[in-house]
Write a structure and sequence with these properties.
Layout: H1 3-14, H2 18-24, H3 38-60, E1 64-67, E2 81-85, E3 88-94, H4 105-116, E4 120-124, H5 127-139
Parallel strand pairs: 3-4
Antiparallel strand pairs: 1-2, 2-3
Length: about 140
């Protein structure tokens, strides 16, 4: 495939346009069971749904949060969700339970930099886990 095709696939993958990727690959259908990109697309969608659920629960608890959308102008490795609770920084990296340990080297580096700056960061797999982490970090701010 040409560089243009790869660049187009990257763009469409970033913006979740599964149908266009499949058309680009010649699949011609919105179903992607045979696509080599199936796992990547479905994981991204599942993690996005998980992030939305987590943010909904954080907001319901009365805290401020927002989703970090990666892109060419963003710092690589930032956590998926940033929250501010009682004036403290919380970074939440959302992962599906079976992918909890799939943190890239860059993400691990950024997580360590956040901790060095006295921020709180964790990999979470559910809304309850995110709320528990925030509650724990509020009670134990130095850990």
């Amino acid at each position: 495939m040409s560089l243009t095709v790869y660049a187009s696939m990257y763009y469409y993958l970033q913006y979740g346009l599964r149908r266009r990727i499949l058309l680009l690959l010649g699949q011609g259908s919105s179903r992607c069971a045979a696509s080599p990109l199936f796992g990547v697309i479905m994981t991204t969608q599942a993690e996005s749904r998980l992030s939305r659920k987590i943010m909904k629960e954080i907001r319901a608890a009365g805290h401020f949060c927002f989703k970090v959308h990666g892109g060419p102008t963003m710092v690589a490795g930032l956590p998926d969700i940033i929250a501010c609770v009682d004036g403290h920084f919380y970074g939440l990296e959302t992962k599906m339970p079976d992918k909890r340990d799939n943190v890239s080297e860059r993400q691990a580096y950024v997580h360590e930099e956040i901790r060095k700056s006295h921020g709180h960061v964790a990999v979470v797999c559910s809304p309850q886990e995110a709320l528990d982490f925030i509650k724990y970090a509020r009670i134990n701010p130095t850990e």
